[in-house]
């Protein structure tokens, strides 16, 4: 059984001062021999922890998404362009509905959700509602001190993949689970309140009257 990782530190919203020291000291990977920089999408049989080396200081940006979430689809072309902007970092994406245990483990019930890992440890979460290439660049720079390549922009190819920017029809299981959990909690709380009410002296007499 894999150990539970420490809670993710939220990103500071005012972390735009470039003079600040990086929060995460990333070991930049060797890009020699790599001709095409792109993100990798994990399938249902692949485990995220197999792609994260706990004994390394390299950094990986991981996106939790669902193919039928319109916010995930609008983010897709921007996230697809990131590997070219930061070739020394690694980028992974996974369908949160197919990796529900990971979603629970890292608190990524809402999608899209982006976590910065150092080795196998989550270090920061991207919290901005404006999910563009520029805000993602700023987030990575503020956390790691690594500057993006200035000539990278979102292209037509980024809209085509590898992360899909077109919605697919399906059931949002994460949303359904959240609604069912909330409904169950409300029902449980109501029943508990009613049972406690009958244990209070005098309450049952008032009810009979």
Automatic annotation (TrEMBL):
The chain crosses the membrane at residues 173-191. Signal peptide: none annotated. Pfam families: Thioredoxin. One of its GO terms (cellular component) is cilium. One of its GO terms (biological process) is cilium assembly. Coiled coil: none annotated. Residues 15-145 form the Thioredoxin domain. Residues 1-24 are annotated as: Disordered. Residues 1-13 have a biased composition (Low complexity). Keywords: Membrane, Transmembrane, Transmembrane helix. PANTHER family: THIOREDOXIN DOMAIN-CONTAINING PROTEIN 15 (PTHR14684). This is TXD15 protein. It comes from Tyrannus savana.
């Amino acid at each position: 059984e894999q150990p539970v990782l420490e809670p993710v530190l939220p990103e500071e919203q005012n972390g735009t001062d470039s003079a600040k020291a990086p929060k995460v000291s990333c070991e930049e990977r060797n890009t020699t021999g790599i001709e095409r920089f792109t993100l990798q999408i994990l399938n249902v049989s692949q485990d995220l922890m197999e792609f994260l080396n706990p004994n390394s200081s390299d950094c990986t940006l991981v996106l939790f998404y669902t193919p039928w979430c319109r916010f995930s689809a609008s983010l897709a072309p921007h996230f697809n362009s990131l590997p070219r902007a930061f070739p020394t970092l690694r980028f992974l994406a996974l369908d949160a509905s197919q990796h529900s245990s990971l979603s629970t483990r890292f608190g990524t019930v809402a999608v899209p959700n982006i976590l910065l890992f150092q080795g196998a440890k989550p270090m920061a979460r991207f919290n901005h509602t404006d999910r563009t290439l520029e805000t993602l660049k700023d987030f990575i720079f503020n956390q790691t001190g690594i500057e993006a390549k200035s000539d990278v922009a979102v292209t037509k190819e980024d809209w085509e993949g590898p992360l899909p920017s077109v919605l697919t029809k399906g059931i949002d299981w994460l949303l359904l689970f959240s609604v069912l959990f909330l409904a169950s909690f409300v029902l449980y709380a109501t029943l508990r309140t009613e049972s406690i009410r009958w244990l209070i002296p005098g309450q049952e007499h008032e009810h009979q009257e």
